[in-house]
Design a protein that fits this description.
Blueprint (H helix, E strand, L loop, with lengths): L18 E5 H15 L5 E5 L6 H9 L4 E4 L2 H9 L4 E4 L6 H10 L4 E6 L2 H11 L6 E6 L13 H11 L4 E7 L11 H24 L6 E4 L5 H5 L6 E2 L29 E9 L5 E4 L14 E2 L5 E6 L4 E5 L11 E5 L3 H5 L4 E6 L2 E7 L8
Parallel strand pairs: 1-16, 2-3, 2-9, 3-4, 4-5, 5-6, 6-7, 7-8, 8-9
Antiparallel strand pairs: 1-10, 10-11, 10-15, 11-14, 12-15, 13-14, 16-17
Length: 373
């Protein structure tokens, strides 16, 4: 593991960098805002731990009313279960008997569920369930419009659900209908159109399940960009938002005039970085580059420094452009950098440094860092 970059009581300006920083006031605002927004809808929050990878943060969400956690990987589920989280959905398919056995073993210490979109997954889970306690809980994932995983909605999904329900080792518990592609569509109208389609195909599938005599306890989906659309649909029972606790530069590009998704939350996650060079006029270099930040969603932003722009990364460096007439950051100055995509950025660090009013209040491990299997 990386050495801890801070200790409680230390000033933010003394934190070793690069460091993964949480502004605790903004973070706690986000935790509370999500629950306040969902409360009138009656829809549950099953927060996505692929964002934070932390049993500590998971327990904070559950303490505020979340019914449990989602993960994408069995390894993440193992870390959460060992960390005391009792209700976990692997909101993804897995392939390979070793993963299936690991998932089945977790059913002995937590309430577990998993998604499938093919008979292949069903057969592997059945084989793995032979030594498990009770029947493994399974959701059928449908393609709600994202064009990634998910069986075709309607008759194909119903057929797969019937096969699960007929199994001695598996229990059909619901549908996974997450539209990932809708989360970053920039306008309200674009997101509404995408989720209207997701609601339509999910409704049609639910009608088919009902006609087949199958009960669907869980209908899960929704992310930080669209969660209130799913919550107000009357179809979804659980929301799976994750990034809302931190936010990032890419979500900040979404337009949310109604304050019903990204506009309700504050930026709470930063990579704290130090200005390490000013060798050329009009530029500065910080110590957060490709190994500290991610760039698949565009460039990160420099927090609250007008005229200072992140323009070019290398492995250990981030080059900043200083607008003419703007005071350049001083050599050795600490800058907060807003990641372009919070989830993979978190996975680059072993520690969170929680800061309030410029003082380090807590240091938490990113316990599920690197859990890619």
């Amino acid at each position: 593991m990386q050495s801890s970059p801070a200790r409680p009581g230390m000033l933010e300006q003394d934190v070793d960098t690069p460091a993964l920083l949480i502004d605790l006031d903004a973070f706690e605002h986000n935790l509370d805002a999500m629950m306040q927004m969902l409360a009138p809808t009656g829809v549950a929050l099953r927060a996505h731990a692929k964002t934070h990878k932390s049993p500590i943060i998971a327990q904070m969400q559950i303490a505020r009313g979340a019914v449990g956690q989602c993960v994408q990987k069995v390894g993440e589920a193992e870390v959460l279960a060992w960390g005391g989280v009792k209700d976990i959905l692997v909101s993804n398919e897995i392939a390979g008997m070793e993963k299936a056995r690991r998932f089945a073993a977790l059913s002995g210490i937590a309430t577990m569920a998993i998604c499938v979109d093919d008979l292949f997954h069903v057969q592997q889970l059945e084989a793995a369930a032979a030594g498990a306690r009770g029947r493994l809980r399974v959701l059928v994932e449908i393609d709600a419009g994202g064009g990634r995983c998910g069986i075709k909605p309607g008759a194909d999904a119903v057929s797969l659900a019937k096969r699960i329900a007929a199994s001695r080792h598996l229990q059909f518990v619901g549908l996974q209908a997450y539209h990932g592609g809708a989360q970053h569509r920039r306008t309200v109208e674009e997101r509404e159109k995408a989720i209207a389609h997701a609601v339509q195909v999910t409704t049609e599938t639910l009608e088919g399940l009902s006609a087949a005599g199958l009960k669907c306890d869980i209908v899960g989906g929704g992310g930080t960009g669209t969660f209130m659309l799913e919550a107000k649909s009357g179809v979804f029972t659980e929301i799976q938002a994750g990034s809302y606790i931190f936010m990032d530069a890419d979500y900040a590009r979404n337009i949310d005039t109604r304050k019903e998704s990204v506009g309700a939350f504050r930026q709470s996650l930063f990579v704290l970085s130090t200005v390490m060079s000013q060798a050329r006029k009009g530029t500065a270099v910080i110590d957060a580059g490709l190994k500290a930040l991610t760039f698949e969603s565009g460039m990160p932003l420099i927090w609250e420094r007008q005229g200072v722009t992140y323009i070019d990364p290398s492995c250990e460096h981030g080059q900043l452009k200083i607008k003419a007439g703007v005071d350049a950051p001083a050599l050795g100055e600490k800058l907060r950098v807003v990641p372009s995509h919070c989830d993979p950025c978190v996975d680059r660090f072993d520690w969170y440094v929680g800061v309030r009013n410029g003082v380090v209040e807590c240091v938490w491990p990113v316990s599920a860092r690197g859990c890619t299997s």
